Amino acid sequence: MQNENFKIYNLYFALCIARVKGKVRLTLVSMVEKCVWGDVPPGFKRLSPHRGQMVLVREGLEGSLHPAEFFREGEAEQKTSPFHGRGQLRRLRLDNGESALVRGYRHGGTLRHLTGDFFFTWPPRPFKELAITEEVRRRGVPTLEVLGAGVERVGGPIYRGWLITRELKDARDLWDVLQHGLYCEDDGTGLLQAVARSVRYMHRQGVYHRDLNLKNIMVRREGKQVRGYIIDFDKAELFAGELPAHRIQRNLRRLLRSVCKLDPNRQRLSPGDWDLFIRFYREASAG
Fold this sequence. Notes:
This protein is of the alpha+beta class and 287 residues long. The chain folds into 2 domains: 123 residues, 2-Layer Sandwich (Phosphorylase Kinase, domain 1), CATH 3.30.200; 115 residues, Transferase(Phosphotransferase) domain 1 (Transferase(Phosphotransferase), domain 1).
């Protein structure tokens, strides 16, 4: 009887150890997947079309947005877009007749000539921007709709990355609008008010845009009104509730530095125009 009990105890402990090992294995797999893919938002599929290639595609677009579209940079059939990031964007035609834009990731700053379009931070920057942008859209901030992101490893942890967004038809970045004097039929107050409202709403929703500048704000006319859209959230930080006051001030100062850098003589956006923008921002805060 004692031997039987001993066998039962051994079997019980063996099962417990196996269960613990299974949980540890699942935990390790989950940790590795999160490091590689990041936090994949609902509604996206993970694909690995070829060795070293990883793609996230919005569900329902697998047929019209083939993974190969992410990695065709430089091919003749690709049509360029008038929009620029740190390089020219490519335009893709979707099956429904709409257009999508492909943006390749490139470094900025003093090391950009050395590092170019090679990255080694994980989870990959395109996947992080996709997840953050989806959350920003969920919070109601006017921005682009991300359709997918792709990563191609070139050796070890080093990779190149791309992001595909639905094209915001007839939109222009704010700096381009100011340079060409667009939407200024009311002395530009409607334009400034639209942008101020979008920036204020972003802050209300707890989004800190680390690279807020005139080229990361898109505007277009919708009916009789002008609406502002904010883009490029790859370095954004998300907070629960409204953005802290010191972060708001830092973000607005970052935007003003962009104004002074692009328009040092303040011919396109005068100090008076900036004061008007801040007034509209505060009015949106009170609304």
